[in-house]
Write a structure and sequence with these properties.
By secondary structure, the chain is mainly alpha-helical. The chain has two domains: 15-71, Arc Repressor Mutant, subunit A, CATH 1.10.10; 74-203, Tetracycline Repressor, domain 2, CATH 1.10.357. It has twelve helices and no strands. Helix 6 packs across helix 10 (188-203). The longest helix has 28 residues, at 123-150.
Length: 237
């Protein structure tokens, strides 16, 4: 976990720097001790500020939690990046960018622990995150999948379930690798490529049987002797 260097009380720093230090300290402590197990005094000591300054910027711990979500959530930046790719209808590029972001950098360990603590001890806090951040991303991804289904690029499936399946695959991999220290002995690039291929190939329509039969018929017409040898019998009746 990243070590937070407390700000010197005598140092001349801006209000934004102090707020950032408070948010970083709170993220670390909430992730290690939980929302209720963390005292504002501990946050103040970790951030190198007074409790009064914390309450000046964040009147309640819930306000501080909201600030953490706004600062630490990877969703807003990721959404802006993948929307441009989605406009090009490049399925592999869209899914690869999402996968690469989650497999390699987001969310970080502290933020994952924070989410798990919130879900266990104060579900309202984790619900806040899902409503304000996660739902937006799932709405985008499920809408994209739905559009690609309408364009016949994907088979007919429930778009929301498909979006959850893809994100669940990525997030679970990240949790196993970093939270539970069970990494896979492959490069991040290889992992991303494998997970995206599994998902994309599951959504793309299979080749029509008539097309396969047509290709076989063409090969037979070009070389009927070879066709009899390879199949063990002649396709001509």
């Amino acid at each position: 976990m990243t070590t937070i260097k407390p700000l010197s009380r005598s140092a001349r720093v801006s209000a934004s720097q102090r707020k950032a230090s408070i948010i970083a300290a709170a993220t670390r402590l909430f992730a290690s001790k939980g929302f209720y197990g963390t005292k504002t005094r501990e946050i103040a000591e970790c951030a190198g500020v007074s409790e009064a300054l914390i309450f000046k910027h964040f009147p309640t711990k819930r306000d501080l939690y909201k600030a953490i979500l706004a600062a630490q959530s990877p969703v807003p930046g990721l959404l802006a990046e993948v929307r441009a790719l989605a406009d090009r209808r490049d399925d592999v590029a869209v899914l690869t960018h999402i996968a690469q972001t989650i497999v390699t950098k987001a969310p970080d360990l502290a933020f994952m622990r924070l989410m798990l603590f919130s879900a266990l001890e104060e579900p309202e806090l984790s619900t806040m995150f899902f409503r304000q951040h996660v739902r937006l991303f799932y709405d985008f991804l499920s809408s994209y999948i739905h559009q690609r289904i309408r364009e016949k690029a994907f088979v007919r499936v429930d778009p929301l379930l498909a979006a959850r399946a893809f994100m669940g695959m990525l997030i679970y991999h990240r949790m196993l690798s970093h939270l539970f220290q069970m990494p896979v002995a492959r490069t991040p690039r290889s992992i991303v490529r494998t997970l995206v291929r599994i998902f994309v190939e599951g959504l793309r329509p299979p080749r029509r049987r008539s097309t396969v039969r047509s290709r076989r018929a063409q090969r037979t017409r070009r070389d009927p002797v070879r066709s009899v040898t390879s199949t063990g019998h002649s396709s001509r009746r």
